Amino acid sequence: MPRNLKLTVAYDGTDFSGWQVQPEAATIQGVLSSAIGRITGENVLPQGSGRTDAGVHALGQVASFLTESVIPAANFQRALNDVLPPAIRILQVEEAAPEFHARKSAQAKTYRYRIYRGDVCPPFLARYVWHYPYPLLEEAMAEAAVLVEGEHDFTSFAAVDPERGLEGREVSNVRTIFSSRLQRDGEELIYTVRGRGFLHHMVRNLVGTFILVGKGTLRSSDIPRIMRARERSAAGATAPASGLCLVNVEYA
């Protein structure tokens, strides 16, 4: 009977082409698969809780895979961190129930987007924030952020995903957002959103739209209208990947 292992993974996504394995490209899933193969001799593809885009980071991504290896979980963690590049760290390896699946079993996810507001962005922050030193109506942006809470059709904030609808996958753009807050913290404006699930580029498109509210191009009261439009062109541009981080994934 193979074991089902659950990995909690942190990574700096700057130099990777996202989570999902791709030919001729360095991806988190691909590098992780190779590392597991080096340790176990098995050809496995760990399944993540979701696909982070190129340049997006994670503090608590979760992946799961089946293995015949008898290596204890703690030793597995050390062995993986010995062979993985420094930009990817395994924070924990746990034995999971046979039916556990990193994506299908997920109940909620939290993402954080960081906007650096100072005139000069420190070089050690540049990979993890969107530097935006220009004037913004931050209170109006905070008001707009709250308006996406609840169950809504987020088509206006979704990029086209060519893989959606394949293999019987869910195609509805309705998602439930439990909390959506934008707050100032020192020199940073931080957007934190927790939801049951997210569409492709959804968080970055929300941030890009909040920026338009901050510039005065839109009003916070325009957010419900944009959602009702169900047209990507009704919302703002996609915010840069560097500011986005998957903070954690919750399970029952």
How does this structure look, described?
- This protein has 252 residues and is an alpha+beta fold.
- It has 2 domains: 3-96, Alpha-Beta Plaits (2-Layer Sandwich), CATH 3.30.70; 106-251, Alpha-Beta Plaits (2-Layer Sandwich), CATH 3.30.70.660.
- Helices cover 21% and strands 30% of the residues.
- The protein has 5 helices and 10 strands; from the N terminus they run E-H-E-E-H-E-E-E-H-E-E-E-H-H-E.
- It has helices at residues 28-40, 73-83, 138-146, 202-215, 223-229; strands spanning 3-11, 47-48, 57-67, 88-96, 106-116, 130-131, 150-153, 174-185, 188-195, 244-251.
- Strands 1, 2, 3, 4, 5, 6, 7, 8, 9 and 10 form a 10-stranded mixed beta sheet that branches.
- Helix 1 (28-40) crosses helix 2 and helix 3 packs across helix 4 (202-215).
- The longest helix has 14 residues, at 202-215.
* Total helical segments: 5
Question: Helical residue percent?
Answer: 10-25%
CATH topology value of the largest domain: Alpha-Beta Plaits
Major sheet attributes: 10 strands, mixed
The coarse silhouette is globular
Return the CATH architecture of the largest domain: 2-Layer Sandwich
The low-pLDDT segments are: none
Number of domains: 2
H/E series: EHEEHEEEHEEEHHE
Identify the CATH homologous superfamily of the largest domain.
Pseudouridine synthase I, catalytic domain, C-terminal subdomain
Quick one: CATH class of the largest domain? Answer: Alpha Beta
Radius of gyration, in Å, reads 19 Å
Q: Which band does the percent of strand residues land in?
A: 25-35%
How far apart, in Å, are the first and last alpha carbons?
A: 24 Å
The averaged pLDDT comes out at 95
Structural class: alpha+beta
